[in-house]
Amino acid sequence: MSPVEDKREAILAATLRLIARHGFHGTAMSKVAKEAGVSAGIIYHYFKNKDELIIELYRVVKRGFADALFVAIDPGKPLSVQIRELCALCFRYSLQHPREVTFLEQFTNSPYNEPAIRDEVERYFEPLLDCFERAKKEMIIKDLPPPVIGTLTVDVASSLARKQASGVLELDDPLIDRVVDALWEAIRR
Amino acid sequence: MSPVEDKREAILAATLRLIARHGFHGTAMSKVAKEAGVSAGIIYHYFKNKDELIIELYRVVKRGFADALFVAIDPGKPLSVQIRELCALCFRYSLQHPREVTFLEQFTNSPYNEPAIRDEVERYFEPLLDCFERAKKEMIIKDLPPPVIGTLTVDVASSLARKQASGVLELDDPLIDRVVDALWEAIRR
DNA sequence: CTCCCAAGATTGAACGTTCATTCGAAATCT
DNA sequence: AGATTTCGAATGAACGTTCAATCTTGGGAG
């Protein structure tokens, strides 16, 4: 990796850490610079301004999440197994990446989340949605709209991961399995 | 209602509207004053500072949400009916109060959400949790931790309400019924 | 192999703006 | 009249952003 990309990614990583801990409001550009070990000015060499930095971080984090889920797709296995693995992966990723989850939830509920960016990022997940579309056609799962399916998988995992991170819930492997079972019973036909 | 309380509530209502539209980051005290039709200084007569204003708004909104759910509790009806009505009420309230939902989601994922405030507000919902505890004892629903049950009801409703508000989903009454059915199948034994 | 220089990378102090908060004075209520 | 409520200009701190100056890099000339 070139040193240039190193610095750019250091800025993105620092922004993620600070926003997860202190929110958008508490994350000043000067703090990002200090956390990343660079000067304040250089951020504007890589990103147009603070908004662009945050939006780019959103793209990167969403892309990473999508990539993590892709390993669940294995056309050799039955769709029901693929979907359950997808759910389980959502949980594992969310639990192992609490900062990413917190950032994504903050972004989603903020004015940053404009339709253009949402549509652009949603495209990363199209192959995963295909998986659900095929399961619908084969009458394996209920014919619910994709956003509902998304809520019953990704959003439930994120919500529980946040509760785990804040200490109000202890999610161990057996409990994750039981929740995945429950979600499967919600969407299966 | 006394004029004093009027002004206080005008400030809270203005804060809710602005935060839902522009986020914490874009909501300045001067804007709150203008939106509420009062001077900037008077806010500090009713609230210690911006943080206290936002935390108090959180209490008020959470309390309103809990109160809206209480009408589902009717000891004359079977627990299974009460729980399904609770879910349905979550949906109706969330859909009719998009600003409240957006604000709550932002608050929950921000550094404002400290354990002390969370615990204090969680107490509003204890009678509702009791309902689920009894259903567990009677072997009607699965023995899942309360936070998991909460996620599978309140958080799912909030998440879908947000998607409806942002236009990516059209939630009509028949679809709400089907989602409530799905959630019931997730938690029932 | 060394020197040099142009282009890009990096710095951090400085700038103008915006923000949360204060406060003395004015208005309103009891 | 005294107490409480309300105002809005003033204050100082913090913020996002800029920019002139400095440093680094890589490659062509000698």
From TrEMBL, chains A, B:
It comes from Sulfidibacter corallicola. One of its GO terms (molecular function) is DNA-binding transcription factor activity. InterPro entries: Homeodomain-like_sf, HTH-type_TetR-like_transc_reg, HTH_TetR, Tet_transcr_reg_TetR-rel_C_sf, TetR-like_HI_0893_C. Coiled coil: none annotated. Keywords: DNA-binding. This is TetR/AcrR family transcriptional regulator. Pfam families: TetR_HI_0893_C, TetR_N. Residues 5-65 form the HTH tetR-type domain. It comes from the Bacteria. Residues 28-47 bind DNA. SUPFAM superfamilies: Homeodomain-like (SSF46689), Tetracyclin repressor-like, C-terminal domain (SSF48498).
